[in-house]
Structure formats: C-alpha cells, structure tokens
C-alpha cells in the first residue's frame, strides 16, 4: 500500500511538472452588462511550459479570453535578470491575446526589497496594466468593471485603527465600493480577505487570489496539505468560496514551493465566465 502510494506520488511529481489542467468557473455577477471570459494566471515562479511558454500560451489562447488577470508571483524573490526578462516576455505574449491587468505577489515585493530593482516600469512597458494598490475602470467586452489590485490585508493585522484606516488597501477598497460598478480585486494572497472575518466588511463582488499553490500536495477526500499562513489542511486552498458579503476565487497556479514539488495537483489555467446576474441590478 505504502509502496503503491509512493509510486503514484513519484509519477504525479513528474506529471505535475508539465501537464496543465483547465479549471472553469461560472460567476454570475450583479451589474455586469455582457458576459465575458477571463483567464487568471498566477504563481508561475519563473517556470516554463514549453519553450518560451508556448504550450501555456497556446492553452490560454484556445480559451479565447476577453481579458487576462495576472495575479502575481510570476517570478520568485531570488530571480535573476533572465527570469525577469522571461516574465516580461510572457506578459508581452499574453498582451497579444487579450488586455492584461496585473498585480504583484509577495515574491515580486520581496524581489524589489532584496535587489532594490523596481519592476513597475518593466511591467508597464509590456503593455500590461499594473494595479499596484490602485484601481481603474475597465471596459471588458462591453462591460464596465472597477478593477483593483492589492497585496495588503483588509483587516488590522497588528496595526492600530488609525494605521489601518489610512492604509493604501483600505482606501483602495473604499474607492472601489463607491464606484457603483461591479468590482473585482486582484489580491495575490487570499489572506487579504479571509482572516478576522474581513469578508463580512467589504462589499466587493469578487476577489481573485493565488498564493496557496492549491495546497501543494492534494490528498484524496481531504484537499490541500499546506498553504502559507493558513498552515496544514488549509480551508481556502483553491476554488470558489462565497464568503460573507463577497466571493473569493483562488487559483492553484503553476509552480511548487521552491524545492517542494506539487503532488496530485496539476498546474492550472483558471477560466472565469463572468455573466450578468439574472433579475438583479447592481447597487
Ligand atoms: Fe505567493
């Protein structure tokens, strides 16, 4: 039994290095005028699927997305120039498929802290629209959406009330809620909204996250084994979670954690079909 499980895990490690899966979600959303398709990419950590990510790009292209959301950790914190250049090439190639909106992950933040290099001009130069603690109104296939990006936490997390209320992420959410439009937040870490019942305080239509890598190792009937800050057997490992006044969708992303491989957890392309919610209007 243990031997069989070991062999299956070994095979899975190899499979999960190159085989992609596509996970699709239907998300009826109030205030959306026309249906559109979004593809989410996250947690690539410098990996390639096919030469110059050709295989990954072909799969994304086949979904015919109206928009692409890049949710962060496309590079790792220790990235060299080559990995950064590869990220830019990838964003440029995505930009040829559809408009790209990008937010940072904790690894991009760490990369800048460690190297002193600012990724923002490089990302903007690819044609992707970077949402770094900011928001914009996007017209996606005829639907006006308020899109934002944050790496912050929408709960105090040890800060005084004053510090929290004046934080960039708090102000960003206030602006987005006041937009009167459907609201989508690219927030690499689900931590942004899951702790201290933050989800009960924010009237946002959708949070899109990665960061968990689907729990890294997927156990039958149990789900993911580990996610940062949530610990072992994380509740929010990947998938769709309607919570409080909002909804959270976590993509399992593409890579493992450093030397730790994914097991029974194929790298995923996350496809969202966002449609008008029937019989309701936004507000
Ligand atoms: Fe991350």
Summarize the structure.
With 283 residues, this protein is an alpha/beta fold.
Mind sketching the topology for me?
Elements: H1 2-18, E1 21-29, E2 36-41, H2 54-62, E3 67-70, H3 81-97, E4 100-102, H4 106-115, H5 120-125, E5 129-130, E6 134-140, E7 143-150, H6 161-165, H7 168-177, E8 183-187, H8 191-194, E9 206-209, E10 218-219, E11 223-224, E12 226-227, E13 231-232, E14 239-243, E15 246-250, E16 268-276
This protein binds fe (ii) ion.
Residues 73, 105-107, 188, 211 line the site of fe (ii) ion.
Q: What structural class is derived from the secondary structure elements?
A: alpha/beta
How many strand elements?
A: 16
Q: Overall 3D geometry?
A: globular
Overall helicity: 25-40%
List low-pLDDT spans. none
C-alpha-based Rg, rounded: 18 Å
Number of helices: 8
Say which molecules are bound, naming each kind only once.
fe (ii) ion
Descriptive notes:
The protein is globular, with a radius of gyration of 18 Å. A 6-stranded mixed β-sheet has the order 1-16-2-3-4-5. A 6-stranded mixed β-sheet has the order 6-7-8-9-15-14. It is of the alpha/beta class. It is built from 8 helices and 16 strands. It binds fe (ii) ion. Fe (ii) ion is lined by residues 73, 105-107, 188, 211.
């Amino acid at each position: 039994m243990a031997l069989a499980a070991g062999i299956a895990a070994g095979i899975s490690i190899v499979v999960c290095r190159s085989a992609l899966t596509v996970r699709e979600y239907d998300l009826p959303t109030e205030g959306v005028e026309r249906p559109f398709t979004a593809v989410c990419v996250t947690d690539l950590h410098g990996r390639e699927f096919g030469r110059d990510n050709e295989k990954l790009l072909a799969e994304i292209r086949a979904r015919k997305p109206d928009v692409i959301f890049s949710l962060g950790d496309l590079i790792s914190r220790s990235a060299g120039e080559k990995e950064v250049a590869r990220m830019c090439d990838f964003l440029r190639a995505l930009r040829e498929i559809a408009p790209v909106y990008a937010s940072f992950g904790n690894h991009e933040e760490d990369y800048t802290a460690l190297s002193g290099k600012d990724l923002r001009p490089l990302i903007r130069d690819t044609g992707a629209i970077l949402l770094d603690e900011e928001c914009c109104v996007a017209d996606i296939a005829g639907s006006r959406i308020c899109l934002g990006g944050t790496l912050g936490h929408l709960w105090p997390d040890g800060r005084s009330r004053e510090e929290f209320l004046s934080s960039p992420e708090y102000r960003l959410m206030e602006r987005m809620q006041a937009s009167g439009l459907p609201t989508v937040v690219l927030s690499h870490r689900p931590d942004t909204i899951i702790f201290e019942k933050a989800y009960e305080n924010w009237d946002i239509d959708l949070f899109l996250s990665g960061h968990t890598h689907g729990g890294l190792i997927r156990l039958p009937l149990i789900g993911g084994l580990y996610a940062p800050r949530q610990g072992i057997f994380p509740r929010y490992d990947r998938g769709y979670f309607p919570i409080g006044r909002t909804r959270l969708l976590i993509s399992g992303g593409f890579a493992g954690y450093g030397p730790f491989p994914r097991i029974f957890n194929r790298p995923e392309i996350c496809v969202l079909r966002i449609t008008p919610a029937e019989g309701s209007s936004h507000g």
